[in-house]
């Protein structure tokens, strides 16, 4: 008789909190987002609870009385775990697990767990494991039985401060030393990967680089596919894309760009995850143009835009030229309040309204990208000896020849091409005054 090898789906009770200075709608939306995160992490949601508090309780986060009510509710649902929509301190997590006798996760933990499930490349796996261990380090207690379930897929969800008791303080110190050693090993590997990625970027440094940024699930990967035809993963799922994917895109017959899709942003992105993914986000830092993709159909897309802008500020790229791409206009009804933003975008040089799904507005987007490409170009009048045959061939290949004529020894050209190419070939020596 065959036995099923399917792992039963675990269930979770979700808990959010409202505070005096936080609008109720914002807390509700954040809790809904946590539900989507839990769904992405393949968890079954039994209920969502929003707790009103005047202040955070330092011991039980929501207060002992509410924590006891939460325990009773979780038992009634037979939930496997309780997930909080905020970050908990190690002490709060331990106190809640002891009181409820349930696994307790916070927002950072569930995001880290999702990243561990989706990390398919070696770079992403190193970045995720490093972020996990940095998160787990202060949460190590003598109640931990071993480290084998701390690194890799599902590590965060598998943790349990109220689990099997270990041999005591000596084992705890061994565990901490092992974790510190592994963190050092991963950091060295990540530094090596960062160096390789920097070399790779340098090798294509003469190309005009465009990076897609935006809130997770804004449609960046769909736009990547629409512009490049690349067979990239497109799913209605938070954090479907972890690594960066770069493809060459022909903007017109003469202009080619390198388009990079990056990991999506989210509110309260865990600090350790942000730090670990710095290598991937460097693609954003070194871009010539950012396409900030916005899900215009989201009821609070403006707040998502603020979150993305905050992350870009942290990366130090707030001054990088940016096109705001208002996506998913196919989901906006005519006459809808948001429809006014779609119409207004037509007259703004730094905005464009599109549907990556249907292709509407893509031609206008390409025109605006082309405009930015041309801002990185120079027009030069050159006198080049005909003996420089290789250079002349490169100019015809990489530049746009506006005028040309020849005399016995020299070629006289007016050419438009990228500044980077002009500098690489040291064309000043051939330039006419």
Can you describe what's shown?
- By secondary structure, this protein is an alpha/beta fold.
- The protein has four domains: about 10-105, 3-Layer(aba) Sandwich (Rossmann fold); about 120-200, no CATH class; about 205-375, P-loop containing nucleotide triphosphate hydrolases (Rossmann fold); about 375-430, no CATH class.
- It is about 40% helix and about 20% strand.
- It has helices spanning about 25-40, 65-75, 90-100, 105-120, 120-135, 170-205, 220-230, 270-275, 280-285, 300-315, 340-345, 360-375, 390-400, 420-425, and strands spanning about 10-20, 45-50, 80-85, 105, 210-215, 245-250, 255-260, 290-295, 320-325, 350-355, 375-385, 400-405, 410-420.
- The strands form three sheets. It has a six-stranded mixed beta sheet with strand order 6-7-5-8-9-10, with helices on both faces. Strands 2-1-3-4 form a four-stranded parallel beta sheet, sandwiched between helices. Strands 11-13-12 form a three-stranded antiparallel beta sheet.
- Helix 1 (about 25-40) runs parallel beside helix 4, helix 4 runs antiparallel to helix 5 and helix 5 packs antiparallel against helix 6.
- The longest helix has about 35 residues, at about 170-205.
- The radius of gyration is 27 Å and the shape is elongated.
- Mean pLDDT is about 80; it is low at about 140-155 and about 160-165.
Features:
41% helix, 19% strand, alpha/beta, Rossmann fold, 14 helices, 4 domains
